[in-house]
């Protein structure tokens, strides 16, 4: 399974573009957010799985053993010990996967044709003419793309530190 996940992350995503477009066109998933979300899940889940697995493998097993010796069942251990300890890992996976989806351009511009459905990163194409580039609008658009990411990271960074610090105390 690990070999499969490593191979999935090593293969360039552009290889799947043309066959996936024909498949999505036959299924009627082009120009829909549901189709694009399905592509993002397929593209980013191998890396997210590897990242979360490496985080969970580093968790100390002594917490689970201590809960077992005190008589906790498997579900109680899962919800009271393991999930609180893995919360920073889940937040990291969510942040990294969200950033990868936020910054993805190629699949969004290929599969979404309706301007109302296009992600914000594809709006940079509207500021480019045949022989000109409006750098003022491009810079303003870059601020709109970067600002939510920075704000989200600043809020999430505090949660990461709190989760890591409190993880050993639970």
From TrEMBL:
<keyword id="KW-0813">Transport</keyword>
<keyword id="KW-1003">Cell membrane</keyword>
<dbReference type="InterPro" id="IPR035906">
    <property type="entry name" value="MetI-like_sf"/>
</dbReference>
<dbReference type="GO" id="GO:0005886">
    <property type="term" value="C:plasma membrane"/>
</dbReference>
<keyword id="KW-0472">Membrane</keyword>
<keyword id="KW-1133">Transmembrane helix</keyword>
<feature type="domain" description="ABC transmembrane type-1">
    <location>
        <begin position="1"/>
        <end position="156"/>
    </location>
</feature>
<feature type="transmembrane region" description="Helical">
    <location>
        <begin position="77"/>
        <end position="102"/>
    </location>
</feature>
<feature type="transmembrane region" description="Helical">
    <location>
        <begin position="33"/>
        <end position="56"/>
    </location>
</feature>
<dbReference type="InterPro" id="IPR000515">
    <property type="entry name" value="MetI-like"/>
</dbReference>
<keyword id="KW-0812">Transmembrane</keyword>
<feature type="transmembrane region" description="Helical">
    <location>
        <begin position="135"/>
        <end position="155"/>
    </location>
</feature>
<comment type="similarity">
    <text>Belongs to the binding-protein-dependent transport system permease family.</text>
</comment>
<dbReference type="GO" id="GO:0055085">
    <property type="term" value="P:transmembrane transport"/>
</dbReference>
<dbReference type="Pfam" id="PF00528">
    <property type="entry name" value="BPD_transp_1"/>
</dbReference>
<protein>
    <submittedName>
        <fullName>ABC transporter, permease protein</fullName>
    </submittedName>
</protein>
């Amino acid at each position: 399974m690990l070999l499969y996940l490593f191979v999935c992350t090593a293969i360039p995503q552009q290889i799947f573009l043309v066959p996936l477009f024909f498949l999505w066109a036959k299924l009627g998933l082009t120009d829909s957010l549901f189709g694009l979300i399905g592509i993002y899940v397929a593209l980013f889940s191998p890396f997210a799985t590897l990242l979360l697995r490496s985080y969970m493998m580093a968790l100390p097993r002594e917490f689970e053993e201590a809960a077992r010796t005190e008589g906790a069942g498997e579900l109680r251990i899962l919800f009271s010990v393991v999930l609180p300890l893995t919360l920073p890992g889940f937040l990291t996976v969510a942040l990294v996967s969200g950033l990868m989806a936020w910054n993805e351009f190629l699949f969004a511009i290929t599969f979404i044709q309706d301007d109302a459905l296009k992600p914000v990163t594809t709006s940079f194409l509207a500021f480019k003419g045949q022989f000109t580039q409006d750098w003022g609008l491009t810079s303003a658009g870059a601020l709109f793309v970067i600002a939510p990411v920075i704000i989200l990271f600043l809020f999430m960074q505090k949660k990461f530190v709190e989760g890591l610090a409190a993880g050993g105390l639970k």
